[in-house]
Design goal:
- The complex is a heterotrimer of chains A (about 280), B (about 300) and C (about 425).
- Chain A has a single domain (about 70-280), classed as MetI-like fold (Orthogonal Bundle).
- Helix content of chain A is about 75%, strand content about 0%.
- Chain A is built from 15 helices and no strands.
- The termini of chain A are far apart.
- In chain C, helix 7 crosses helix 9 (about 170-185) and helix 17 packs antiparallel against helix 18.
- In chain C, a hairpin with a 2-residue loop joins strand 9 and strand 10.
- Chain C has helices at about 1-15, 35-50, 70-80, 95-100, 105-110, 120-125, 150-155, 160-165, 170-185, 205-215, 230-245, 310-320, 325-330, 340-345, 345-350, 355-370, 380-395, 400-410; strands at about 25-30, 55-65, 85-90, 130, 135, 135-145, 145-150, 190, 220, 225, 260-265, 280-285, 295-305, 370.
- Chain C is globular and about 65 Å long.
- The chains are: A mainly alpha (about 280), B mainly alpha (about 300), C alpha/beta (about 425).
- At the A-B interface, helix 1, helix 4, helix 5, helix 6 and helix 7 of A face helix 1, helix 2, helix 4, helix 5 and helix 6 of B.
Amino acid sequence: MTLTTRQTRLISRTCLTLALLVVAVPFVFPFLWMVSSGFKSATEIFGQPSLIPRVWRWQNYIEVFEYQPFARQYFNSLYIAVTVTVLTLVISSLAGYALARMRFAGAGLLMLFLLSALMVPEEVTIIPNFFLIRWMGLMDTHAPLILLPVFGSHGVMATFLMRQYFLAIPKELEEAGKMDGLSRFGIWWRVALPMSRPALAAVSIITFLFSWNLFLEPLVFISSLERFTLPLALSNFTDSYGLPLWHLQLAATSLAVVPILIVYLIAQRQIIESFALSGVKG
Amino acid sequence: MADTLTNHVSARGLRAPRFSLRQREAIEAWLFVSPTVVGFLLFFLGPLVAVVYFSLTEWNLLTQQSTFVGIDNYVDALSRNPDFWHVLRNSFVFALGLVPLNMSLALMLALALSRPFRGVVFFRTIFFAPVVTSAVAWAIVWKFLLQGEAGAVNQLLAVVGIDGPNWLREPDWAMVAVIVTRVIKMVGLNMILYIAALQAIPRDYEAAARLEGASNWQIFRMVIWPLLAPTTLVIFVITMIGSFKVFDHIYLMTGGGPENGTLVLAFYIYEQGFKFFNVGYASALAMIMFVIVLALTVVQMILRRRDMQ
Amino acid sequence: MKTRLGILATSTVLFGLMAGGPVLAEDLRFTVWTGSEAHLKMLDEIAESFKQSHPDVNVQFETIPAADYTQKLTFQLAGGNPPDLGWMMEDAAPTFAAANVLMDLGPTLQAAEGYDYADYSEAAMGLWVSGETVHGVPFSTSPFMIFYNKTLFDEAEVETPLELAQKGEWNMEKFQEVAGTVKEKTGKWGFEFKDGQGYDSRIMHALMPPIRAYGGDAWANGECGFDDPEAVAAVEQLHEMVFEDKSIVPPGEQGDYFSGSSAMTINQISRASKMSEAGFDWGIAPLPSGPAGEAPVIGQAAIVVFERGGKKDLAAEFVAHMTNKENVAKMAQFFPPARKSVLESDAFTQANSIIPAEQMAHVSDAIANGKVLPSHERSPQILAAMAPKVDALWRADADVKQALEGVCAAVEPLL
């Protein structure tokens, strides 16, 4: 008995789907486990594992806010990420525009320099940056968490992404802008930026997540509890004696991860495309 | 035409037509890039030069005393301190484990998910989800899942009759654990890049090959894989640099242990500089890391260029 | 920094107005690792009472999480953002003293009225004094005690550590026996290292009590003591309990005492405040004695003033105020004192609302006879060098003696 092409295809599709489902387990399980454990007591987390808590401890989500200034830390992460995103958008699109559209001496060299910055991990420059930030009197403030991502390799990546996008905008549109008497700045603002919404969206998404998840910089530059950002707060979720609070740590982690995950699920196509763009262009 | 017009208009704006059109454009361009340039000099190039100088000193972070010691720190790392080679080895083991695993899994997933079928969006969404999740959260959760006997992973393995190791307490298994959890976290990104590249390959190529009687494997080997080469290079460089700079993952899951089994370069730099106050030695390590990453990137680019010719 | 700029701005403005006018208000920044409201309330009260002599001085307590305290403090000091005063743990003291970042408090304390510096025993000050220099004043001299879960002991029908201690039978042998019995009869762990961190961040807290009970020590006079026969015997016992009796929570597992998963743990009495929410009966007892008799182990924390703080003389005066007799007695409700007069007072044993006086008496004894945890100028490096070797020790098939020799080989060059 031979199978028709349709049957073979059906069988291979089913096998593929089953295989993918198996592979998907380690991608999905941590999230399910995290959320479910956030509702358990510390004892239950280490007891017989089950995805449904025996007793739903909703108070975990209240206690999270009692042991640390968690609302404040949440807000810190949020406003820092928004600031970093806005600054990166402005600065990288300005530079990206000049690199794509304007001719000036040193442009080639500048490109080369910026390109090299993409290769350098921030661990290489963290020590001198520590002294720089100290010299600027900005220790234990949020300024380094804003300045370093905006001007570091992430900002450079955003610049290249913007440049690549501006290159694809038809020159004629700009010429029309010039005819209307727009300055360079005007063309950038009125013509180039509105045409590059997809690139701007991509930069925003990637930058926001980059800042939101930043860890090394807060670890080195922030020391007081109420100036902590979320990753720092999560990594160190202890009571006032330094005793780890496992169940609250997981509840707090859920609080930090789930909103992002929901936004991701809603806008997954846009978000995935943004990253695809960054990888190809950057 | 338009150019003269702008020149005319803005020249009037400036009152004194001191600059030629080209000069004006250059000045404007430098204004556009000035924030980037200033930031780049201040937070990147300056520090990079500084780290070279730091690496030639013995500098205590706490007492803030520094003396110039020449290449002592490098000699120390390369010949005196046994930890260094162990750390370097760990970094390479991590990279050599992570990069191929990540790239091959990414490619396989991309091949499976580059054509529409029912559920394709669902699977893409799932495999990409860890990418948007914070590494801190990811490491925290996996640290729990990988606990000894009580950990969920070992409980699951026990169901199928496997007696799982005490993952994070045995040096070799700990390395395996950090590599695999890191791959799960990051593979989605490479998968998406590969999908984008696969979708850009014209269908005709494949159809033509099939007409000539090529098997699936032959099509992949002779048609698809060569066309993916530029993407593979980008992915390789990104993934490789990423694997050398891994810090948060190690910091939170193993702290470099057990028995220094997961002590990698990025973590070692942090420890030496900020925990033991050896600014000079840590800077020398940072320079070594810089050179390694640069060398690997350059080698890969040269190989690739030769390949094209 | 912002606040400092603010102060700068206000002070410049005020400078013009200040012709023999009022003294400027001054802020002292004081880093602590407690976030407990009760602790902070007490500290604020002490700061308030300082205003009687220094009406314009505000002391602001800044919480840095305990787990990362020393690291974060380093960042502040090295980062040009030093606090004026701070708490400091015993293992960090020699490092910071050697780096010359701690102010000599001696002259200020000697000059302070009614301070009675001699009231601090030499033993208690040992770690904080070198020659004539006083680097800090201990505010907490807290012995490690056995916390036990009475409910589990009753369930297993064994005598509690406190009962055994009162009969004089509470020794290392008995410790192993009861831990094993509890594990066997209840299925819960017999013993958990301090905060479950004995295999990573609290190696010393895990190893030192038994090693000292056996008569050994970590190091002395530049010699490593971990491979001495006493230390080897002590660690062999622990190893046996972990891997053969399976009564101690092993590496990579959790057996949180405070949520009832372990029958015993080691901790300091400040942690007793956590017991009020535990759902079981409990008590505290001394550490089990060993071949070398009783060997209480103490964890110490002191108040120090940072040289680079800018207002160090004022800060030193605040230390003198905070550690005078009255305030030490006040703090004794949370932090066991190093002042003999307070320690010997009934007020101390009765000050603790959670721990009965008979149990507190053991605490007093331990403070009087105890020895502070080992520390060293190069503590961070030593601990880091030890950690991988200690990891090797905690394998089921490890040769304890060989592993401890490995520890010594790693540590010796640093001593």
